[in-house]
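To illustrate the input format used throughout this study, we show a single complete record. The first block contains the structure-token representation of the backbone; no residue identities are included at this stage. The design step must infer an amino acid for every position from geometry alone.
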């Protein structure tokens, strides 16, 4: 959906129409239709800001004992700077966050506690990244373009709490939505999909070719996802393939 162009089929008096448009533009929010999704589209975060992000609506509560979270990323951010890649927060805690740390490592936070991985850096070309975790063993891993990192044990026996808010582009400093520009994501994100179980390796590899044999995400399905845009985020065509 183009944030700058709003097509209305209703007829409003000139003054009322201006109030409606001004309210939408000043709020910085564009609402997607429930059945629109983001098939074939990417979210572009062109600037470092403290107010630009996308809120994603899950298909089921994030009370998770396991998950696979995948996304395509491209960024030119360099230097000693934290970069948030995904954030899910409840009122009480950062439940599930994915970061590129200031030292270049990548991290998975569960209930505010991190596990860190040394991976190849992100760059201007699209990278497919997946994160897997399951509670019984605590085994967690990052997958980059279909290749798995070493597995590490993290938060064995843990369950994430539901009733939170999931966003990309920013990290919550508190549940009421305070953000810091120097932690914001700048670049492109697409194909954010999430399952409440660990996908087998064959399916994670198949995701790179958009293979129909991979089941749709049962928490987030990029093709049909419900979302809200805040601030200066651009919804653009994602013409290239992984």
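Output of the design step:
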């Amino acid at each position: 959906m183009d944030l700058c162009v709003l097509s209305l089929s209703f007829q409003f008096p000139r003054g009322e129409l201006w109030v409606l448009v001004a309210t939408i533009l000043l709020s910085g929010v564009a609402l997607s239709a429930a059945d629109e999704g983001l098939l074939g589209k990417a979210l572009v975060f062109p600037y470092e800001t403290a107010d630009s992000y996308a809120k994603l609506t899950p298909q089921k509560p994030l009370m998770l004992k396991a998950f696979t979270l995948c996304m395509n990323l491209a960024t030119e951010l360099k230097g000693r700077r934290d970069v948030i890649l995904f954030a899910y927060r409840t009122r009480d805690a950062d439940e599930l966050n994915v970061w590129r740390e200031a030292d270049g490592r990548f991290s998975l936070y569960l209930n505010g506690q991190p596990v860190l991985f040394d991976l190849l850096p992100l760059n201007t070309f699209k990278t497919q990244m997946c994160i897997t975790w399951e509670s019984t063993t605590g085994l967690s891993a990052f997958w980059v373009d279909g290749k798995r990192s070493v597995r590490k044990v993290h938060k064995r026996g843990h369950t994430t709490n539901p009733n939170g808010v999931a966003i990309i582009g920013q990290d919550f400093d508190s549940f009421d939505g305070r953000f810091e520009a120097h932690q914001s994501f700048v670049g492109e994100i697409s194909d954010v999909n999430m399952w409440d179980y660990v996908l087998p390796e064959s399916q994670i590899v198949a995701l790179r070719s958009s293979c129909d044999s991979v089941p749709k995400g049962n928490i987030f399905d990029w093709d049909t996802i419900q979302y809200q845009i805040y601030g200066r985020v651009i919804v653009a065509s994602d013409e290239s393939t992984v």
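Structural context for interpreting the output: Residues 1-35 have pLDDT under 50 and may be disordered. The chain is about 10% helix and 35% strand.
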